[in-house]
Amino acid sequence: MKPWLSIIMTLVILVQASLAHADASINEEEWMQYKTRFLDRGGRIIDNGNHGISHSEGQGYGLLLAYLADNRSDFELIWHFTRTELLLRDDGLAAWKWDPEARPHVTDINSATDGDMLIAYALALAGASWNNKEYVAAATRIAKAILQEAVVKHAGRTILLPGANGFSARDREDGPIINPSYWIFEAFPVMNALAPSDAWELLTTDGLYFMKSLQFGPAKLPAEWVSLRTAPRPAPGFERIFGYNSVRIPLYLARSGVAEASMLGRLRQSLASDDQPMATVDLTTGKRLQPLTDKGYMIILSLLDCLTDGTKVPETLQQFQPNLYFPATLQLLALSFLREEHAACL
Amino acid sequence: MSMTHRKAALAAVPLAIGLLAAVPDLSAAQDTHAGSAPLLSLERQGRLRAIDDAVANDARSATGSRVAQVRTVQDTPTTQPQPVAAPSGEPDLSALRYFASRGDTARLQAEIARLRALYPNWTPPADPLAVPQNVDRQLEQLWQFYSEGRYAEVRAAITDRQTREPGWTPPADLLNRLALGEARTRLINASDQKQYATVIELGASNPNLLNCSDVDVLWRIAESFVRTERRQRGVDAYRYILQHCDNPQERLATAQKALDLLPLADVKPLLALERTLPDGQPEFASLRDGLARRAVAEANKAKRTDVDPADVDRLEALATSGNDVADMLLLGWYLRGKGDLDRAEPWFRKAIDREPSASAAQGLALILVARGRPGEAEAVIFPWRADSDDAQATYLASATNFLALTPAPVIAPEILTRMASEILNAKYVAGAQQLGWYAQAFKQPQVAARWFETALRWDPQDEPSAYGLLIARDSLNDRPGVAEIQRNWVDKSPRIAAYFEGVATATVPREPRTARAPAPVERVEREEATRQPMPPRPASPTVRTASEPRRPARQSACQATAINAAPATAQQQLMQGWCLMDLQRPLEAAEAFEAALKSPTVAIREDAAYGQSLAYLRLGLTDSAAVAATKSPLRPARAAELQVAILANRALAAFSAQRYRETLIYLDQRAALKAETTDLMILRANAYRALGDTASALQIFRVLAEVGNGDAMKGVEEIRSMDDHNG
Lengths: 346, 727
What we know:
heterodimer, A: mainly alpha, 3-stranded antiparallel beta sheet, 13 helices, 9% strand, B: disordered N terminus
């Protein structure tokens, strides 16, 4: 139960900070830069590394960052788009993909569980901090729907399906499939507050088990898509890689505070070493593919260093000069976390 | 209360929300509903103050956590927020001012109507366009965003101002409109993604969306109901439009949509709401063609033939003037279903000419089979046999009927081969059995036995195949084989039992083809109309009095039924059949017997089969008589009686068709059952003579001439004079 307690403690600290209306953990300048590049006036977060499409994940991150920047009107702007353009599904989850070039814009009505979770999480935090009951009500509906549609038991473990359709044991021969980077550990206690269920705590404990045990190939890294049909293995039909998405695993673990230092240390060593810079990895061969040199990725390594041995985060990684939506988002999440909880690292 | 007012202002007659309120999942969906909140957030802001303090205290007590806070806000009593109370005092003129400043008269008038409904004592300005502009520049900006549909920015700007000016509240009217606009956007998006529950939920919680000013929304609501098994509610929504909305294009499109989504029975009452256009035309005139197509298509699907003749005529005109093969096929199937083969056939042929298809080939093949031309049917359907289960069934039926023709037709080897291979592939019992009879007819009992054995392997209970196998083995003089059939079937098949009784009395009946029945074409059809073409009924049956009524007691019933064609029990139909036979009306009698054949009672069925066979014999329809005789197992005596008559008829028919060998075969078969009559002996002699076997002919003529038969004496005379000439 130790990880659970530490979450509570983390949240206490976080909430006290925000309730005291201390400085937002993302400053005005940073938020201005972020929104100038990635937020349009209709409330849409633009994934400029992905042909300018939008998705529930982006909307969720946008909401979370606007909350952390304490910008209520931008939060409202992003929420408007999320609600009217994505929250259309009969089951109360969000459609995951929105393409400005397509008519109708939603090109895949399936859900993405990390997007749904981020939206509900941000709404809950904002609703609690700003006393907006509508946000909390909306968050509650999404949390209930996630519980209903995407949280399942498999082989004695509680898992998070990546979407409402297409990943379960019934949907695929190699199902169920999970995506470890969809485990947003910090959100589970908040989900439990919204839609109380034992499943949320089980997601944390079973999630930690997976994060520890999923070490594939020579690189000993988790695969982006993992089949749990038999013993966990990289899912057939997906690339067998440690990909961009997976970079979030150590970040989420660190932010939630649920992982022991030894676990973070091991991940850190698998991610990069002196002669092996951080990169996406072919899990079969262990071969490095795309180097991950953007500050948004690099800061995750530094963050792990600081948490494990106290090494300070280099000045340059603290400067925010956003270029691509995804690493820019990760950098702000890392910075916000360090400022709130590990100011000594900066 | 104010809801009612708003409704009255925005929509004269909104689609009754009661229609939606009964949807079970709606009440649940409305709890603390964010979508409906903008109307209400003014009040909520006030209420939340208290929570604010509570939470703040909680948090300061050091045990407060983000989680606890979330729970607190969530758990605050969530009484359904009340609509803004009916306003008293001064109306908010900001919207009015904004629309006036833009010169937007339509919206201005709507706003005036709305305000009048809300404030009965309020007097609108004499010159609305001269209303002074809003002095609040920021509010002006909000209205501008709103009027440009930039709802996200309105939301952001409201929040921004509320953050900067804590006491400021946005105009309730703006929030209402904004909520409505957002709900509409979501509704359209959800509808585009077929998220029908979301669509209905939004419609139910936003009654102001449901009125004639936005028919598209009503269409989407209607479709969502229809597609979620709530058809009647969909019908209600379409009816609402046709009863209350006036735009002619929208009305026509509504009728079209209803036609696309609903069964005809639901659409018809809607179309009755049709109005007359200013030019005197009915407004849905252009839908009539589609309607006729639908009427016929639905009837075909449901195997009904009760389409309004006007619709059939319309479709016929379309098929005649147009090139649409689908129309021709619809019509062909419908007419065939009605039993009107003469009208149906040309449409299938025309369809094949224009664009060959499995459906057209199937229709034509079934008609050809019904007309006793299964060989042509086989050729027509062959290329399509693999197209569908139905096509295959039609092919097998055509081939089997082809084989079952009497006399057995000479079939080209390649055709025979392909029929056999299709029958084998499909393991089609009736087909294998007919191949057996076919081989037997051509005196190839070895081959016949193989086919009958095959049929029995596929269906060990198939009595006709067992019977066929018996005949074939008997021809082969296969005693053990015959004994095996006897062992297995004597208890199950009266005619096989009768066969062995016959053997015992040393009269070996040879009736290789008696068991033949055309394959049941109709049974194998699944999709299309299944009515068996009926022989035409006399237009007005005149009841003649039989000179010597054998069953006078039945006659009155017979007359009555003949006129009224009232449904009757099988027993009554049977009596009716005999009665009509007495009246010398065999055609109608055959129909009555056909009805009686559906009886579950074996005795009635036997009687009916016997009766129908006699009726056909009287009509000279020998093939039909043979078929009828197989419709029920018959007592041996009756079976023999029919068989004798059938074979005599066939012999005569073959002779008149100059098929003399066949004539002799039939005569042999008949002779095996019953002693040859004098006239048939003369027929036999003439057949021998025609085949050049004058010796055999002369032998018969002489025997008969000795007992003074004139025809025989003449025959002897003729042969002699011919010999003299030659000699």
